[in-house]
Design brief:
The complex is a heterodimer of chains A (165) and B (595). Chain A contains eight helices and four strands. Chain A is an alpha+beta fold and 165 residues long. Chain B has five domains: 107 residues, Glutaredoxin (3-Layer(aba) Sandwich), CATH 3.40.30; 210 residues, Rossmann fold; 84 residues, Ubiquitin-like (UB roll) (Roll), CATH 3.10.20; 88 residues, NADH-ubiquinone oxidoreductase 51kDa subunit, iron-sulphur binding domain (de novo design (two linked rop proteins)), CATH 1.20.1440.230; 56 residues, Alpha-Beta Plaits (2-Layer Sandwich). In chain B, strand 3 and strand 4 form a beta hairpin. In chain B, helix 17 packs antiparallel against helix 18 and helix 17 packs antiparallel against helix 21. Classes of the chains: A alpha+beta (165), B alpha/beta (595). Bound molecules: flavin mononucleotide and FE2/S2 (inorganic) cluster (FES). FE2/S2 (inorganic) cluster binds next to helix 6 of chain A.
């Protein structure tokens, strides 16, 4: 068995997440440009890119770890650190910005005591600013996990957040 | 046969305002009333009028219901589908005239539109290839594969005058010809669905509403240039579009319309989806190709152009989603038909995403040459809340602002460039008197600074310097010299950046300096922000005459910056005030002003 195959066996057979990632790597290690799809999968499964998993990717796909970090850090969609249980993404795209979505961010920040990019100390919420969620017709818009909230006004914030408490 | 059909918008806008819950409630209600065999419920792509979502249209009457809620469903079923009466309470008010339901073409929002790229959006179920087939789907591919030579396809596209809809406006037929020329063992067809301009959602809506028309066009392109493999590079932020594309690819394969031996002609073509990962620069074609190859999405120097050396060094054709969405119509209706729409140098139609301070936010498709005034007032319904129209931003971070004085300009590639903006991919953000133009310029530079990939110095460092100057101005610390500095920097960055991102990055600053210089000067000389946006230059003040001393402002201030006593006097402590504006929105007597 090659070293690459060996590393894939690091995934605990009883860990379903790990097995899902392992299967995906096996399917993609020989396709051209397979690294980014693999990183997407890992981010999907774990919510971020854990270091040990990237080590395994490096060995099994034969890509230097430096190159993987280069790619992972280039794209804002990938995160190298874990996030809170709920991720709040407030749109700062143009259509939302001109309708004062900054005030929504400020309000959430005040309500949770964090600023953009931070996670609350209880690990419940991460606050992020994003550029255009494609729901510009409803601006200003934010997304909490997969749920979109549109036509926001500042006063909506406490009620929406309480839905996730 | 069904006696009625209910179309429910399943675009991103309406989905996020709950249209799928409405669909479920409707299906349940129809079952409960025992008419689920008589009424068909279809989830479609975007109808365009996102501002009024969730939107439901019921045929054969063509009644357009807006802002529908789950609670409305029993009444809607009872009235419209059982008793056959239009539920006036919910019908979009503009679509009804003395009890008569107007057809959609008569409604202001749709009257001046012309749907070519969006032809099937909001009409068919995007997750069912049979519906696409029923609307002439894959007929263009069949025509091309069975009756046309590759050169004939290219000459038709050239003759149509179609130009790229991704921003650059390069003639599409010529690009196909250039990519057809080189001899290679492998060529690629790429669809650019990265749609990076924040505030734009045309490509997303096409992919969500009619994914098959893009697949079909990519196959036609493959046949024309001699490629057998295609990639669609799409933003990861577009999960619904990704899902519908995957469904369409699978269904097309099942039907023998994609894969090996397509339509029994021996032609082979395969399409793979690749997800972007949140980098604006990846919309630039060479950066996009690096990203598909699994690398950091940095642009490559041109030449060589993708037509000669693109993906993995092979000849590659790259077009935008909307460009592809026009192809099947050109093949079926003829190049002359297409060339008859639009202006002399800009043929066909263009889809725009109308956003910002406009009544009918949403998606519109107009013939080239339509004036900005028609878009904003006739189609867009004007500016809400009686505010004054100030400017329109087109072309996103690479474009510029068109001031109100130029509202009669026809929208086409060349007119827009002549006034310092550009067509861009189709984002159109309307600004009113409450938007500060210096702040808008700052917003775009901030975006560019974040998104610059860092490969070349003028863009990486230059845009940061420009941003710093703009921030200084919005803080009220700018000098008149700064305006010259901005202009010099802009010129240098444009001239010396590696890719289109840097080469166009200064445009929002240059165009606002050109048309709104007085606003810059107000920030610098008078230390005032005329629109009342730049916080450092604002003071909230209570007008004693209007104030009724109720104390509501003081109680709602989050930082207790308003001091005073009920029935006596209230003042804003400027040292504590964080300028959030809460007091102003809370005051029932409009006694608080910002200056
Ligand atoms: C910074 C930058 C961002 C771009 N973003 C996009 C984009 O999001 N979508 C797109 O179709 N084209 C985008 N383009 C244009 C592409 O480089 C390319 O010209 C286009 O995909 C060609 O297709 P077309 O000829 O059909 O327009 C961008 C260009 C630059 C310089
Ligand atoms: S700008 Fe906010 S959703 Fe598009």
């Amino acid at each position: 068995m090659s070293n690459a195959e060996n590393r894939l066996n690091d995934f605990d057979p009883n860990d379903s997440k790990g097995q899902e990632v392992k299967k995906f790597i096996q399917e993609h290690k020989n396709i051209k440009g397979g690294l980014i799809p693999v990183l997407h999968k890992i981010q999907d499964v774990y919510g971020y890119l854990p270091k040990e998993t990237l080590n395994t990717v490096s060995d099994s796909m034969n890509i230097p770890l430096t190159e993987i970090y280069g790619v992972a850090s280039f794209y804002s969609y990938f995160s190298l650190t874990p996030k809170g249980k709920h991720v709040i993404r407030v749109c700062l795209g143009t259509a939302c910005y001109v309708k004062n979505s900054q005030a929504i961010i400020d309000e959430i920040g005040r309500e949770l005591g964090i600023t953009v990019g931070q996670t609350t100390s209880d690990g419940k919420f991460t606050l992020e600013a994003t550029r255009c969620l494609g729901a510009c017709g409803l601006s200003p818009v934010m997304m909490i996990d997969d749920k979109v909230f549109g036509r926001l006004v500042k006063d909506d914030v406490p009620k929406i957040l309480s839905e996730f408490n | 046969m069904y006696r009625s059909q209910v179309l429910i918008c399943g675009g991103t806008g309406c989905t996020s305002s709950g249209s799928m819950d409405i669909k479920k409630a409707l299906e349940d209600e129809l079952k409960k009333r025992g008419i689920d065999k008589e009424v068909e419920v279809i989830r479609t792509g975007c109808f365009g009028l996102c501002a009024l979502g969730p939107v439901v249209i019921i045929y054969p009457e063509g009644a357009f219901y807006s802002r529908v809620k789950v609670e409305d469903i029993p009444e809607l079923v009872e009235e419209h589908l059982i008793k056959g009466r239009i539920l006036k309470r919910l019908v979009y008010h503009e679509s009804i005239e003395q009890d008569r339901v107007k057809s959609l073409d008569e409604v202001g929002f749709y009257k001046k539109q012309m749907r070519v790229a969006l032809k099937n959006c909001g009409v068919i179920d995007p997750e069912n290839i049979d519906e696409y087939l029923a609307f002439d789907g894959y007929k263009a591919l069949e025509k091309v594969l069975t009756t046309m030579k590759p050169e004939e396809v290219i000459s038709q596209i050239k003759k149509s005058g179609l130009r790229g809809r991704g921003g650059g406006g390069f003639p599409t037929g010529l690009k196909w010809e250039l990519t057809a020329k080189p001899v290679a063992d492998q060529k690629y067809v790429v669809c650019n669905a990265d749609e990076g301009d924040p505030g734009a959602f045309m490509d997303r809506s096409i992919l969500e509403g009619d994914p098959n028309c893009v697949l079909e066009a990519m196959e036609i392109a493959g046949y024309a240039i001699g490629a057998t493999k295609g990639f669609i590079y799409i933003r990861a932020e577009y999960p619904i579009a990704v899902k519908r594309l995957s469904i369409a690819i699978n269904q097309a394969k099942e039907y023998g319309l994609l894969g090996k031996n397509i339509l029994g002609t021996g032609f082979e073509f395969d399409i793979e989806i690749r997800l972007g990962a949140g980098a604006f620069v990846c919309g630039e074609e060479t950066a996009l190709m690096n990203s598909i190859e699994g690398k950091r999405g940095m642009p490559r120097p041109k030449p060589p152009f993708p037509a000669n050396s693109g993906l993995w060094g092979k000849p590659t054709l790259i077009n935008n989603v909307e460009t592809y969405a026009n192809i099947t119509k050109i093949i079926l209706n003829g190049a002359d038909w297409f060339a008859n729409i639009g202006t002399e140098k800009s043929k066909g139609t263009k889809v725009f995403a109308l956003g910002g301070k406009i009544t009918n936010t949403g998606l519109v498709e107009i013939p080239m040459g339509t004036t900005l005034r028609e878009i904003i007032y006739d189609i867009g319904g004007g500016i809400p809340n009686n505010k004054k129209f100030k400017a329109v931003q087109t072309g996103g971070p690479s474009g510029g602002c068109i001031p109100a004085e130029l509202i009669d300009i026809p929208i086409d590639y060349d007119s827009l460039i002549s006034i310092g903006s550009m067509m861009g991919s189709g984002g159109m953000i309307v600004l009113d008197e409450d938007n500060c133009m210096v702040d808008v310029a700052r917003f775009y530079l901030d975006f560019i600074k974040d998104e610059s990939c860092g490969k070349c110095t003028p863009c990486r460092v230059g845009t940061k310097r420009m941003l710093e100057i703009l921030e200084k101005i919005t803080r009220g610390q700018g000098t008149m010299d700064d305006l010259d500095k901005l202009e010099t920097l802009a010129k240098e960055i444009k001239a010396s950046s590696l890719c289109g991102l840097g080469q166009t990055a200064p445009n929002p600053v240059l165009s606002t300096l050109k048309y709104f210089r007085d606003e810059y000067i107000a920030h610098i000389v008078d230390k005032k922000c005329p629109a009342g946006v730049c916080k450092a230059l604002l003071q909230y003040k209570i007008d004693d005459e209007k104030c009724r001393k109720c104390g509501l402002c003081a109680r709602s201030c989050p930082v207790s910056a308003i001091e005073g006593k009920v029935k006596e006097k209230f003042t804003v402590n400027q040292d504590k005030c964080i300028k959030c504006g809460t007091c102003m929105t809370k005051c029932p007597f409009k006694a608080i002003d910002k200056k």
